[in-house]
Amino acid sequence: MSECLLEVKELCTYFHTEAGEVRAVNGVSFSLEAGKILGIVGESGSGKSVTAYSIMQILAENGRIASGEVLYKGQDVTKFNKSQLKGFRGKVCSIIFQDPMTSLNPVFTIGFQLEEAILLHTGKNKAQARERAIEMLTLVGVNQPDKRVKQYPHELSGGMRQRVMIAMALACEPDVLIADEPTTALDVTIQAQILELMQELQKKLGMAIILVTHDLGVIADMCDEIIVMYGGRVCERGNAEDIFYNPKHEYTKGLLRSIPSIKNAKEKLVPIAGTPINLLNMPKGCAFSSRCDSAMKICLTEMPEEVRLGDTHLASCWVNVKEMMKDGGAKE
Amino acid sequence: MNKPEYLVEVRDLKQHFPIKTGMFSTTPLKAVDGVSFTIKPGETLGLVGESGCGKTTVGRSLLRLYKPTGGQVFFEGEEVTDSNMTALRKKMQMVFQDPYSSLNPRMTVEDIIGEPLDVHKLYRGKKDRREKILNMMELVGLNAEHATRYAHEFSGGQRQRIGIARALAVNPKFIVCDEPVSALDVSIQAQVINMFEELKDKLGVAYLFIAHDLLVVHHIADRIAVMYLGKIVEVASADDLNNAPVHPYTLSLLSAIPIPDPHIAHSRQRIILEGDVPSPMNLPTGCSFRTRCSYATQRCAEECPSLTDRGDGHFVACFNK
Fold first, then answer.
1. What are the structural domains, with CATH classification, of chain B?
2. Percentage of chain B modeled with pLDDT above 90
3. Closest chain B CA to residue A159
4. CA distance A244 to A284
5. CA pair distance A29, A289, nearest whole angstrom
6. Of the partner residues A192, A196, A271, the one whose CB lies closest to the CB of residue B194
């Protein structure tokens, strides 16, 4: 087995709001091996971004990690002090945000913002840092990098800005790159450029990537392993083959049925009934039970355990448990 | 009198916005620059393109939310480019992209849907008005008890239903749908797309369906027009465009959509376009796409290609393909 780089164990992240405690992430576990791309997919409010922010320890003020561990090479990141975190963020683990328009500081030049990270984490002097900044911009395919370092974010297009963000995240050669909806704000042709770039850099630099997105198409294209989240919980996990061709959780099945595809363009879509879950008012049992066609009595009252269905494939759904019991019963 | 063949016909529509470039100078931003298309009764025309290509402006100019700089719009064979706006908007309506900002937060659902009825005086007495509103709500799958609630009490999908009910209230024959599902979650998108299709079957309305998501457009549209920098570069039936695209831009657009099927995603060849879209204030000479096109020749820089028929209603604007 290859090296396990990052391990998230039973992570629970809660937010305190006036309306009550919002349990955004509710017992999420996964592990990330070096050099792999892990996809986290889910709708808005499923807790996928909060999971990413929890790893980086960049939660909003009213948020806290209530329980669970984030282990990087065996060390618990949640117990890091300020200076340890400084060494962790940017150097070991970097993040790219969704909106390249707002995640760069408008009053500093691109070069300054890139060098800031390099100066902080490496022993380089200013001239060397500038050189490294230009080298990184070249790597991510920004044309005329020596001119760009003197420009301000507003002078660059959205695609260019996202490239700068990627350059910034990779400047200190992190082991783990977290990409939180990196292409959602971009046009399809620019999205294709950025995804291609991320794949290329991943092969070249060998870092592990956590790709957070709602777009199943991006996931299909990029990921080795996939986690499907709903209502702050993992409902299914597996490799691309498992999730796309052999989905076992009712939510994953519904999600795949509800997106139009090239093959069945004129067939009617099968939507998932109802509306996404209200995190303030979580059901006792399975979070998806209120929208699920196959919901049984037990689904409403008890949380399903994660059940292994294959070498890489796990799902938390009572329907699978029932089927397995039926099979077991038949054998006896 | 013969019934006209087309419900909507647009000829050489132009929409230029003056942009201040100095104290006394302005430069036109050519958002839409000579767009022509037709829509038959009950037909859905998909309009796709990247942000900034002018697809939303086409929809807005049609309804005269902007006054077009040039060109003509015909509705049922009659020119409506300069006609009375109230009369025009009884025939065509619009559904907006953002269900959060397109509904007045201080109005109840009943008032929102009732407003077009008030404007066009489409009821006899209060009872009739209420009945019509409740009919509309039922049509789009909203409960009658929701009538007295405010927009903020609804989820994104339900708000979009309110927006659709408002558009349908005057019983239009044509609706411009401007990215109606792109602000919604995947599982909700399918509900709204299905509703658009059901309404089309039930009421026979025609749509101009503007979106950037080609998979969604391919699903809902009969024909698709592809726009790039203010011009239509290719028009074809939905299946034709998907199976046999011709224009280099359409080719790269199709190859760039992420397909939720790992086998297809890994086996196909992506055509990655170089660079960014040029600024619409400083368009390249000739064909606007030539700066990113791998087939571009000298001629592309000198002349602008016009849409030519390649058979079966498949129109392409390209010299080299």
1. 8-91+172-316 (3.40.50.300)
2. 63
3. B276
4. 29
5. 21
6. A271
